[in-house]
Specification:
By secondary structure, this protein is an all-alpha fold. The chain contains 4 helices and no strands. The radius of gyration is 52 Å and the shape is rod-shaped.
């Protein structure tokens, strides 16, 4: 009788065995899907990290290039101002050289130097130029004095 009771009890639960297998299969499938999802998530996190690092690298490279461009623009501006100043000096030198070519009394000074074979200091030449201008009528800034360039040698 005990065997019959056991057999009867086993027969009563035989319908649960397919249900239990189905639940175990569903549970295994759910765990596999969770594992696949976790793996995919890790791969995506890794890929996102790579892309973010590439983005940061590119942004840093762009910032460095912008700084270099700014520095080069500043240097270019300085060079342009230097060049303009140099061109201005050259133009002034050309103007002054053309002015010195037509100095009043220049020929007399050169003749005087040739005959005496003496070089005059720049101060004497400048004074002779200034006093020659005075003879032309500009007496605002200089007092008129008789001037002999060779007397100071």
């Amino acid at each position: 009788m005990a065997e019959a009771a056991l057999h009867a009890d086993a027969a009563d639960f035989s319908f649960l065995e397919p249900l239990f297998r189905h639940l175990q299969t569903g549970l295994r499938q759910g765990e596999c899907e969770k594992a696949e999802f976790a793996l995919d998530r890790q791969e995506m996190d890794h890929r996102m990290g790579e892309l973010e690092s590439r983005l940061n690298y590119q942004q840093n490279a762009n910032e460095m290039l912008f700084r270099r461009v700014e520095i080069l623009e500043q240097v270019l501006q300085v060079e342009r101002t230097k060049r303009q100043a140099l061109q201005g000096r050259q133009a002034a030198a050309e103007t002054s050289s053309s002015a010195t070519a037509s100095l009043p009394g220049k020929q007399a000074l050169e003749d005087c130097l040739r005959t005496r074979k003496v070089s005059m200091p720049a101060r004497v030449v400048l004074q002779s130029y200034c006093f020659a201008e005075l003879e032309d009528g500009d007496t605002r800034h200089w007092q008129r004095e008789p001037f002999d360039p060779l007397a100071q040698l």
